[in-house]
Design brief:
It is a single chain. By secondary structure, the protein is α+β, with helices and mostly antiparallel strands. The chain is about 35% helix and about 25% strand. It has 3 domains: about 5-105, 3-Layer(aba) Sandwich (Rossmann fold), CATH 3.40.50; about 130-200, Dna Ligase, domain 1; about 205-450, D-amino Acid Aminotransferase, Chain A, domain 1 (2-Layer Sandwich). The chain contains 15 helices and 20 strands. It has an 8-stranded antiparallel sheet with strand order 13-12-9-10-11-14-19-18, with helices on both faces. The protein has a 5-stranded parallel sheet with strand order 3-2-1-4-5. It is globular and about 60 Å long. The chain starts with a strand and ends with a helix.
Length: about 450
């Protein structure tokens, strides 16, 4: 087992990893920008190294400075968390070249699964159901039009190196293709430094279902159930739950088998998620694989009892998947709300101002993952997440009730937050019934008079 791990990240995920390290008897090294000098991950780490000013490219994306921090603190491994460098093949390779264990996949696997068109070809070869579409990058508008006649409308143009909804456009008729292609390509180039675009058939009324996987270096791989991630705004997840309201045991077995097949086909080690689109007839199709820990991992922990960060560290230390996780049963229901410093009344504009009052709920089945506190200044350089509110109960109905109560007890004064928006979603009949898909929030109107 490692004796010291450097965490190449910030905020709530850095704090979450520090806790896991300490429970395993491992010392944790934090890195931080000058904008994060007073963040809790800096306070609770065993050592902390400033790696630059606020902008990400001068700090959390600055590979030489992170490596230098690892060297001067004698860290043995580097945990990338999520975002930033977590799925950067070059960072994985540089860590290995400098004798650090990268707590994530090899550069080859990141490259194979991070490029969506390559990942799709890999999964198709392994026998995993994939969404009909182009089997290669689309070179130009003319080729996009040719492919569209083969695939059929509606279709999606997607950034091959993308994620988070960037470089993605829905096309409903042929006249939209040229503008959609150019816009998606420009956006992808700006966001990822790669303008490659591919085409997929648009699945109507889809649900976004992801399978949590855990794999060791001895050839063992298991899934730990599914998460429902269909409550999205502009392809950004807001609320997740586990298990999915529409996945029964039979479908879970099929999804799990496909996910395990997917990770074994590439020799994956560690934690990750295999993401699927589920259509209205419960046919499922591989969408992408995230080669990292996910923001929403706590809800899987709540229904399985597994500590995913600790298991991730153990897998990269050479341990085997424990026997009790090979016979997993899901217990109860868990829901997560992402609380962001954004104003729902003003188009979710960021609200990066000091927190003057901060009180989080407690009680049975309530968990808070947050790095914030009263007096904390939300930096302008990074995402606007304040924290994650997670609840667990014996049934979905009781979990919804518990989340409503927990949201009502949240007090965050200073910045505007998404708490009122979450409260309205939890009261919506479509959410309560579980009868929703990824278009759920497209026509959702925030009732500021009732919920602000």
């Amino acid at each position: 087992m490692f004796k010291k791990i450097l965490i190449a990240n910030r905020g709530e995920i850095a704090l979450r990893i520090i806790r896991a390290c300490h429970e395993l008897g491992i010392k944790a090294v934090a890195v931080y920008s000058t904008a994060d000098e007073y963040s809790l991950h800096v306070k609770f780490a065993d050592e902390a190294v400033c790696i630059g000013p606020g902008p990400s490219n001068e700090s959390y994306l600055n590979v030489p400075r992170i490596i230098a921090a690892g060297e001067i603190t004698n860290a043995e491994a580097i945990h990338p968390g999520y975002g930033f460098l977590a799925e950067d093949a070059n960072f994985s390779q540089v860590c290995t070249q400098n004798d650090f264990t990268f707590l994530g996949p090899s550069p080859e696997i990141i490259e194979a699964m991070g490029n969506k068109s390559k990942a799709k070809a890999t999964m198709e070869a392994a026998g995993v159901p994939v969404i009909p579409g182009s089997n290669k990058v689309i070179a130009n508008v003319a080729e996009a039009k040719t492919e569209s006649t083969k695939i059929g409308l509606p279709l999606m143009l997607k950034a091959s190196a993308g994620g988070g909804g960037k470089g993605m456009r829905l096309v409903k008729n042929t006249a939209e293709i040229e503008n959609a292609y150019k816009t998606a390509q420009t956006e992808a180039q700006a966001a990822f430094g790669n303008g490659d675009i591919y085409i997929e058939k648009f699945i109507e009324e889809p649900r976004h279902i992801e399978l949590q996987i855990l794999a060791d270096s001895h050839g063992n791989a298991v899934h730990l159930g599914e998460r429902e991630c269909s409550v999205q705004r502009r392809h950004q997840k807001l609320i997740e739950e586990s298990p999915s309201p529409v996945v029964d045991r039979k479908l879970r077995r099929k999804l799990g088998k496909a996910a395990v097949t997917a990770v074994k086909s590439v020799g994956y080690v560690g934690v990750g998620t295999v993401e699927f689109l589920l259509d209205k007839n419960k046919n499922f199709y591989f969408m992408e694989m995230n080669t990292r820990i996910q923001v929403e991992h706590p809800i899987t922990e709540m229904v399985t009892g597994a500590d995913l960060i600790k298991q991730q560290i153990k897998m990269h230390a050479g341990e085997k998947v424990p026997d009790h996780l090979k016979r997993i049963e899901l217990h109860g229901h868990s829901i997560e709300c992402r609380i962001n410093a954004e104003d729902p009344e003003k188009g979710f504009t960021p609200s990066p101002i000091p927190i003057t009052s901060f009180h989080m709920p407690g009680g049975k089945g309530v968990r808070i993952d947050s790095h914030a506190y009263a007096g904390y200044q939300i930096p302008t350089y990074y995402d606007s997440m304040i924290g994650k509110l997670i609840v667990h109960a014996s049934t979905r109905e009781r979990a919804i009730t518990r989340m409503r109560q927990a949201l009502s007890e949240c007090v965050i004064e200073g910045p505007k937050t998404t708490i009122p928006y979450h409260r309205q979603i939890l009261d919506d009949e479509r959410f309560i019934s579980g009868d929703y898909d990824t278009s759920f929030l497209e026509d959702f109107k925030f009732n500021s008079e009732k919920y602000s």
